[in-house]
Structure to design on (775 residues):
């Protein structure tokens, strides 16, 4: 469906950045070490999802002892494995912080690469309750679903790779656009996951959750890998590291092609590269990373179900074969960490140059009966940012206290354009803008260990945003906007019981809206229609209680119950160039996560997430629209007033089993389930549930060679990646004749079109064979 929704980017790392609540609380160092040693004996280690003997010893450490991610988890790919003595965390990643919510987890790169996936972004499905789909080509950002949210291409899910934000604010296609097609999964060391607005160092886009992906620093052996599969899939990967001075230089390169099962082949062509220098340790080190990526593709967008059932299109057919796009991304980033007697300093800076040209046609001939409704979205930006944080360890009245303070900044210089096109040829301009958007976030957070089984964390975050919009075609849509919000946070961990901890989190958060929506006063397509600007920042608030336990041998289990309110879900429509405000919303539900490892060679996980999502209050506008469509059921159905939130999944479930030791035979089977969801506010249209199974079988030798077979959609399920319901028009529709051949239908009906299921199917049974060698 057309991309649209609000929000913007966040900052905040997972291990070692927080802020300023108590700068006077830390002078006394005496007794700190003894107190911290006693708490370590009671504190549960972080829940880590790992797989393979290389990253998990046969004899597990006692759950009573605090543990950190292992070297293999953090620094090296599954094959080849980590060097002995590697640091427990990435170079310059900062001070270690134990998890403070039951929903926090750390997933190793080993586990991510043990999962058979169709595309890079799907590694995020290791996040419990998260579904990752793709509805339009292999170069476009994925679609994300979590905690009852259709997060579109990244709204309210903050994603970082080595502390560099992935989400793009004020983006041509959708607020928070988070493209991960440039991610090389084999270079991922670990993924840290948080959920909810309870963390002071997490800002924009993080109300529902945040994902921090860390990259490996080095490998022991080089890796050469080739994959060939169904539908023209080819992938070549090379990676190696060498010692350079006192540090290591890592180089990785990837090239890939893919046509897909579509009648109009995707013809995806991708090049990707990474170079990284690192020296030192997590708390005393420096790393510098450069990345380059380019991709070009065709796309088969979602199509009306009526076109398939009538025989007009095949299930894998395209209504507009000229849809597609091209993109590139170049990034340079650096991280620095340094420790002293009082704690740890950490700083990072980055600059990212990216460009996207995207051609889509979601409504076919609804607006233009001659040339169709294809439009071109152009986004060209330079994004730069710098962050600094200080973590201080001390004591107050004999109690251990850890205080973190931080400053986060970012600026985006963006050129945006929206035009009407026909088969990618220019027809007319809709709007074009130059946007400068900057933000500053400050935060402070202080953790007090009251006893060896109770600790509390109180924090506060302040965000200031300012944007300057220059509309090149309509000066009335130019302007400046600024906004500021303060957000208090609180967390508590209670663990007086054997191998079990309870947690509580409450807090305020925010998300940002597209800066153009904050200055737009006229409809770009009809300047005579006046619009009300939307707020630049919108408040969110949430609460969560949870429990996690290891009381059952070899089983990590956690249960979290949450509620999340948003003052407004304001949507910026990238294909229309304006904003529309929806009502406030509320979501509540639970997540149950389980990870069981009874033997070194068997790893089992199972997750269940259920959410109740509704708009709050009453919106009278749909009632008027519904009445204006009377007498034409094909246009009217689905437009009645209601409180259902479209595409808000009520249930997400997943389960998997991974088998195998460090060498020899290995395999995996994974199942994921997305339940039926409402597609319209009146619940007249609902999606069909989707159940997909992927599998892997392979063999590893002791000299580093590996061969594996991935089978995607093992049971050849005819399901949909994504389903929408909205108005569109085909020339074969009877309504087309009533509107444009001989107009007898009211204008409102013709503008609305035929409400129908709009689908993008899951790829059929797919095989991929990988051969990899170490050198």
């Amino acid at each position: 469906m057309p991309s649209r929704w609000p929000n913007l980017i966040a900052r905040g790392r997972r291990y070692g950045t927080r802020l300023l609540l108590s700068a006077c609380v830390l002078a006394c160092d005496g007794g700190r070490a003894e107190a911290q040693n006693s708490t370590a004996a009671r504190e549960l280690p972080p829940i880590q999802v790992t797989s393979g003997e290389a990253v998990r010893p046969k004899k597990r450490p006692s759950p009573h002892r605090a543990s950190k991610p292992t070297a293999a988890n953090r620094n090296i790919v599954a094959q080849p494995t980590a060097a002995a003595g590697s640091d427990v965390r990435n170079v310059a990643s900062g001070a270690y912080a134990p998890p403070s919510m039951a929903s926090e987890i750390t997933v190793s790169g080993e586990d991510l690469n043990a999962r058979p996936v169709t595309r890079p972004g799907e590694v995020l499905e290791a996040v419990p309750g998260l579904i990752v789909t793709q509805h339009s080509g292999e170069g476009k950002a994925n679609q994300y679903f979590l905690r009852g949210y259709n997060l579109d291409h990244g709204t309210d899910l903050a994603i970082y790779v080595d502390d560099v934000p992935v989400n793009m604010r004020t983006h041509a296609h959708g607020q928070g656009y988070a493209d991960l097609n440039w991610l090389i999964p084999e270079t991922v060391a670990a993924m840290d996951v948080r959920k909810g607005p309870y963390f002071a160092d997490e800002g924009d886009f993080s109300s529902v959750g945040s994902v921090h992906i860390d990259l490996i620093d080095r490998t022991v052996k080089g890796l050469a890998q080739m994959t060939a599969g169904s539908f023209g899939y080819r992938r070549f990967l090379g990676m190696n590291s060498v010692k350079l001075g006192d540090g290591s230089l890592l180089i990785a390169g990837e090239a890939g092609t893919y046509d897909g099962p579509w009648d109009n082949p995707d013809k995806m062509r991708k090049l990707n590269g990474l170079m990284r220098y690192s020296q030192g340790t997590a708390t005393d080190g420096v790393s510098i990373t450069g990345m380059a990526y380019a991709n070009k593709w065709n796309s088969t967008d979602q199509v009306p179900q009526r076109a398939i059932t009538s025989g007009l299109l095949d299930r894998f057919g395209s209504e507009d074969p000229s849809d597609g796009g091209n993109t590139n991304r170049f990034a340079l980033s650096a991280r620095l960490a340094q420790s002293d007697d009082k704690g740890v300093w950490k700083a990072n800076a980055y600059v990212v140059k990216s460009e996207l040209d995207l051609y889509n046609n979601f409504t076919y001939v609804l607006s233009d009966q001659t040339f169709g409704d294809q439009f071109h979205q152009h986004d060209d930006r330079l994004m730069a940012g710098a962050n600094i944080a200080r973590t201080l360890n001390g004591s107050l009245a004999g109690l251990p206290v850890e205080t973190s303070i931080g400053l986060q900044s970012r600026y985006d210089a963006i050129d945006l354009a929206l035009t009407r096109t026909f088969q990618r040829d220019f027809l007319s301009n809709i709007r074009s803008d130059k946007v400068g958007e900057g933000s500053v976030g400050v935060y402070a957070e202080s953790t007090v260990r009251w006893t060896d089984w109770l600790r509390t964390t109180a924090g506060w975050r302040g965000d200031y945003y300012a944007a300057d919009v220059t509309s090149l075609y309509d000066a009335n849509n130019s302007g400046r906007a600024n906004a500021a919000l303060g957000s208090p946070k609180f967390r508590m961990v209670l663990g007086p019981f054997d191998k079990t901890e309870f947690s509580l989190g409450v807090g305020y958060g925010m998300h940002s809206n597209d800066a153009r929506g904050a200055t737009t006063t006229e409809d770009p397509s009809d300047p005579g229609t006046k619009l009300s600007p939307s707020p630049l920042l919108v408040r969110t608030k949430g609460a969560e209680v949870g429990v996690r336990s290891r009381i059952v041998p070899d089983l990590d289990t956690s249960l979290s119950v949450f509620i999340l309110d948003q003052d407004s879900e304001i949507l910026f429509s990238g294909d229309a160039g304006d904003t529309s405000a929806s009502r406030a919303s509320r979501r509540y539900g639970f997540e149950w996560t389980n990870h069981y490892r009874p033997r070194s060679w068997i790893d089992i996980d199972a997750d269940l997430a259920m959410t109740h999502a509704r708009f709050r209050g009453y919106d009278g506008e749909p009632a008027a629209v519904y009445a204006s469509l009377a007498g034409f059921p094909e246009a009217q159905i689905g437009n009645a007033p209601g409180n259902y939130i479209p595409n808000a999944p009520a249930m997400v479930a997943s389960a998997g089993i991974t088998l195998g030791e460090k060498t020899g035979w290995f395999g995996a089977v994974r199942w994921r389930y997305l339940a039926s969801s409402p597609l319209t506010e009146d619940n007249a249209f609902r999606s069909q549930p989707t159940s997909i199974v992927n599998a892997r079988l392979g063999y590893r030798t002791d000299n580093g060679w590996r061969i594996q077979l991935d089978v995607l959609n093992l049971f050849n399920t005819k399901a949909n990646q994504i389903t929408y319901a909205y108005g569109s028009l085909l020339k074969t529709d009877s309504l087309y004749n009533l509107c444009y051949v001989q107009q007898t239908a009211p204008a409102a009906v013709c503008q609305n079109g035929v409400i129908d299921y709009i689908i993008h199917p899951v790829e059929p049974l797919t095989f991929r064979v990988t051969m990899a060698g170490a050198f």
